[in-house]
Structures are given as C-alpha cells and as structure tokens.
From TrEMBL:
The keyword Metal-binding applies. Gene3D superfamilies: glutathione-dependent formaldehyde- activating enzyme (gfa). It holds the Pfam family GFA. It comes from Paraphaeosphaeria sporulosa. This is CENP-V/GFA domain-containing protein. Transmembrane segments: none annotated. GO terms for molecular function: carbon-sulfur lyase activity; metal ion binding. The keyword Lyase applies. Belongs to the Gfa family. InterPro entries: CENP-V/GFA, Mss4-like_sf. It comes from the Eukaryota.
Length: 138
C-alpha cells in the first residue's frame, strides 16, 4: 500500500494495489499544473484509490488530447490526481507522484509523453518508451 496527500495534510490518500504505469509528461499543461519542467504521473486503477478529504475539481480541456478532471486541495493548492473518461484512461486515476508520502523510487518512469515539448536541457531517459503525444496505453 502506498500513501500520500497534499502539502497541508487536509487530503490524504492510499493506493491499495500496485500502480499500472509511471509516465513523465512534458506537455505545457502539466508544466503549469506542477510548476515544474514535467510531471511524473503514476497510473492506478481508480478502484484502488481511497482518500479522506474533499478535493476541489477543475475540468482541463487542454486541446492536446483527453479532457481531464483535475483534483486538488482548495487550501494549499496541491494537485493530487487527474481522471478522464477518454478512451484508454477510463477506470484509471493518474496520481501526481510528488504527492506520495514516500516510496517514489519504487516507481521509475516507463514512458515519456509529449517528448517534443521536453525542455532542451533534459535528455531522453534511457530504456524508457518515447511518445510524441498521449499514445501511451495503460
């Protein structure tokens, strides 16, 4: 079991099963959402995510692929996870890896998406699948 939560502790969660896949995303929306150069996304079956608290939700119509519902803390603004009803994403929750309490080392990336938008100073990861868009399947 893996645990995590927001910065202020108002929302905490646990993941009951092992994650399905870990992917780095280099799209502009993930950069804005995380305030970083990319996001590290851990996909889990939605049925395995349990949480305490009431996250706020934001509908992200990115124009870059699937429409996501982004859940975040309304107190500290931590982005926690996102979900989509789009093909290939339904039934999964994409947890922002930076919200894990510990154990992030256990989930190394298996793929990188939106690689054309990767910052120039960050090289391609070795032995990690590369995708131009969101072609990675869970």
């Amino acid at each position: 079991m893996t645990k995590g939560g927001c910065l202020c502790g108002k929302i905490v969660y646990e993941i009951l099963d092992e994650p399905v896949k870990t992917v780095l995303c280099h799209c502009i929306n993930c950069k804005r959402m995380t305030g970083s150069s990319y996001s590290t996304n851990i996909s889990v079956r939605s049925s395995s995510l349990r949480f305490v608290g009431s996250p706020r939700k934001f509908l992200l119509k990115s124009g870059q692929g699937p429409v996501f519902t982004v859940s975040f803390c309304d107190t500290c603004s931590s982005t926690l996870w996102k979900e989509s009803e789009s093909e290939g994403y339904k039934g999964y929750t994409i947890v922002q890896a930076g919200t894990l309490a510990q154990g992030l080392d256990r989930y190394p990336p298996e793929g990188e998406i939106f690689v054309r938008e990767r910052v120039m100073w960050m090289g391609q990861m070795e032995n990690v699948e590369q995708f131009e868009g969101t072609d990675v399947r869970l």
